[in-house]
């Protein structure tokens, strides 16, 4: 769905633009941001990418990464950029709260807010919105923004293509999730034609683990995996001591929940991580098991049908106990 299309006229002249995405950006968030960053820069706009936090090290190679401003590292500069902005691109989030410490700054700015996103239940804050909950990734919508809305497919460079490919690849689980439509494959083919080196991208993202991360993975599989066969459910619960022991950094838990879902017969998987100030939860499922409903109703979160996130201010043990207690409500769909 597209709203506020008339505002595209603003891009006819050079503008001050800030690109933002959600806290702790994943591959789609950063790939989308850097993809549109390169396109806007080429059009003569003054563009900056400002993040509320760091991001996984396996994304540190993305073209344009060196230009990214991380707010806690340069708050004065970042605030000044927001104050001078004509347009703020809001990518891969549908509620300003997802930007964490940037939320009040974005709300207070006089700049137009342009949202490009695929998450459910968008907040009404944008002057222009390109939103589609059926899209596989925000990077897919950025491709649509450039190639269709702005009719500028010919301007997609290898740098843009690499970032957008990475965003789509990571948000579709390497093209295996149900959101990977034939249209997504056609877009991916076009991005390869535009210069995305698919082999190199996969190598950079998936073959760049540290020794400590692999040992952490092995430890988690051996000691922190619990299977509940009567509900076709499995989960990991990680303590803050686990994180310290293996020097876990941003991105090290990425994809861990999928190992639980990969067990034969498992239909619902969860990852609980004790981040000290709160418990972070990731849910993954198969079929029609509603991760988003579970997270929304019980864990202050939401997301997609088969991939959602949430949080809890209870202890790790109490949060896991709550999760177990709600499984009987979904017995029929979990065991059919």
* Shape-level CATH architecture of the largest domain: Alpha-Beta Complex
The biggest beta sheet, please? 7 strands, mixed
Major beta sheet, strand line-up: 1-7-6-5-2-3-4
CATH superfamily of the largest domain: inorganic pyrophosphatase (n-terminal core)
Q: Which structural category fits the helices and strands?
A: alpha/beta
**Radius of gyration using CA atoms only:** 20 Å
Written overview of the protein:
This protein is an alpha/beta fold. The chain has 13 helices and 13 strands. The protein has helices at 27-42, 75-84, 103-108, 138-149, 158-171, 182-193, 198-206, 211-223, 240-245, 256-261, 291-298, 316-326, 331-335; strands spanning 2-3, 16-21, 46-51, 69-70, 87-91, 112-117, 128-131, 225-228, 233-238, 268-274, 279-285, 302-303, 307-312. Helix 1 (27-42) packs parallel to helix 4, helix 1 (27-42) packs antiparallel against helix 5 and helix 5 (158-171) runs antiparallel to helix 6. The longest helix is centred in the N-terminal third of the chain and has 16 residues, at 27-42. It is globular and about 60 Å long. The mean pLDDT is 95.
């Amino acid at each position: 769905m597209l709203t506020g299309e008339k505002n595209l006229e603003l891009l006819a002249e050079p503008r001050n633009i800030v690109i933002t995405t959600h806290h702790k950006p994943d591959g789609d968030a950063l790939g989308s941001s850097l993809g549109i960053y390169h396109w806007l820069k080429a059009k003569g706009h003054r563009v900056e990418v400002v993040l509320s936090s760091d991001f996984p090290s396996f994304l540190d190679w993305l073209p344009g990464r060196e230009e990214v401003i991380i707010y806690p590292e340069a708050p004065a500069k970042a605030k000044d950029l927001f104050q001078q902005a004509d347009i703020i691109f809001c990518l891969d989030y549908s509620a300003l709260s997802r930007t964490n410490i940037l939320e009040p700054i974005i709300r207070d700015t006089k700049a137009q807010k342009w949202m490009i996103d695929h998450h459910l239940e968008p907040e009404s804050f944008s002057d222009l919105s390109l939103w589609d909950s059926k899209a596989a990734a925000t990077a897919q919508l950025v491709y649509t923004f450039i190639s269709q809305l702005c009719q500028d497919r010919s301007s997609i460079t290898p740098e843009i293509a690499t970032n957008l490919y990475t965003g789509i690849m990571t948000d579709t689980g390497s093209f295996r999730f149900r959101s990977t439509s034939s249209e997504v494959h056609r877009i991916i083919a076009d991005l390869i034609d535009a210069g995305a080196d698919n082999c190199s991208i996969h190598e950079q993202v998936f073959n760049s683990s540290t020794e400590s991360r692999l040992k952490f993975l092995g430890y988690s599989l051996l000691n922190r995996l619990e299977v509940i066969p009567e509900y076709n459910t499995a989960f990991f619960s990680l303590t803050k001591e686990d994180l310290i022991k293996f020097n876990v950094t941003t991105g090290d838990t990425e994809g861990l929940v999928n190992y639980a879902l990969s067990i034969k017969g498992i239909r619902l998987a969860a990852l609980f991580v004790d981040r000290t100030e709160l418990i972070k939860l990731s849910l993954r499922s198969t079929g029609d098991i509603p991760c988003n409903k579970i997270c929304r109703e019980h864990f202050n979160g939401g997301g997609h049908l088969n991939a959602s996130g949430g949080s809890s201010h209870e202890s790790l043990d109490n949060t896991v106990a709550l999760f177990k207690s709600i499984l009987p409500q979904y017995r029929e769909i979990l065991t059919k």
